[in-house]
Each structure stands twice: as structure tokens, then as C-alpha cells.
Amino acid sequence: MSASQKIAVVTGASQGIGAELVKAFRERGYGVVATARSIRPSDDPQVVTVAGDIGDPATARHVIETALERFGRIDTLVNNTGIFIAKPFTAYTAEDYAAVLNVNVSGFFHITQLAIAQMEKQRSGHVVSITTSLADHAISGVPSVLASLSKGGLNGATKSLAIEYAKTGIRVNAVAPGVIKSPMHAPETHEALGALHPVGHMGEMNDITQAVLYLDNAPFVTGEILHVDGGQSAGH
Prior knowledge:
The chain has helices spanning about 15-25, 55-70, 95-120, 145-165, 190-195, 205-215, and strands spanning about 5-10, 30-35, 45-50, 75-80, 125-130, 170-175, 225-230. The protein is an alpha/beta fold.
């Protein structure tokens, strides 16, 4: 690792937006530690993979320890992991609730706490969390209480952390997407999902990676919830 190389940790990195983020960071010369429940080893010596449940504190410790052993520092953490269960509120089960909080909340809490502790030592760092525009603008016909409860909480935590660490050289931001074309959504659903956005179409994964990269290179931006949602959060 060169002294000037930046290091990013990306959660939920085995497919979709997470995999695109790993690719985008590598194209810009970052070293990357990529984690997901079922991620495979990488052929790229500058990408280290760690398999595990991000909601488990032991996985979070393993990821951060791996980053420090391999690269010696952490410049950026992207909390990309997330699950979405769309059910009427009264239909959610205890298992649904536990699963969403494990991934969306515990998966944020444990690794972010460890990453910020390292960033404090460096006096620099950046945390970006991928949340959802549904937390700001609910959509009739799209039941999303658990998404709003968990990812909306991350929006609040983003602002709180940004202020707590504003004078330490650590920035904290979030990207709140609309519905993005990814492996989560079958092609036959794209037309209906696109119609949920004022612009009339879904977003692309590149829209999210570009938003993350913008925030990572915007030193005067912290505490920002950047909506990349085709106008969803502005209204209908």
C-alpha cells in the first residue's frame, strides 16, 4: 500500500450496489475490504473479502481487523447492507422484525463504532450509509414501516454522528435512494417501480455509486442525507 492510497470498507458487497461500489473504488485506486454473508475471495490483491453476518459483532471486528492488518488504515466506510420486507404493518412477524434490525441497525452500529474508533486515531475518515427515501416520503401501496424504522433511524444517526465528530476530521453522510435497478428487482417489475418516481423511471446502480463518490470527495459536506430518488422525496 502506498502512503497516499485510500482504503474503503464496503458492506453488502457481494452483489448489486455493493459490488458496484467495490468496482468504483478500485477504479479510483482505493484498496477495498468487501464483506457480505456469502462473498467469495477476490482475484484482485487490492480487494480483501470477509464473509459473515454483518449484524454479528464478531464479523464487524473481523472486518475492521482485516482492514488494519492488510492496509493499516480505514478512510471510508460504506454501510451498504440492507434488507427490505414489504408487508402490511400488522402482518410483520417477530422474525421479520429481528431480521431487519439485525442487518439494517446492528449491521450499522457495530462496524461503524469500530471504524470511527480507528478514524479518531487517524484524525480523519468518512462514513456513508445507504438508507431509503421511503423514510422521508412514504408511498401509498408500498408498506415500509420496518424500512422506515431502521433506515430512518440511520438518517438520524448520520446527523448525530456528523455533529459529534465534526471537529475530529471525521465526516458522516448518507445516500437515500429511490428504487434502483439491481438484482433485488425482477425486470418485469421495472415499469411499475419506475412509475413510483416523479421522473418516471428507476435509478441505476451507477447513480448511487456516483453519489457515494461525490460525498467521499466533498470535504465540506457532513450530516447530509443525499436523496438520489428521481424526485420521490420532493413529492408527487
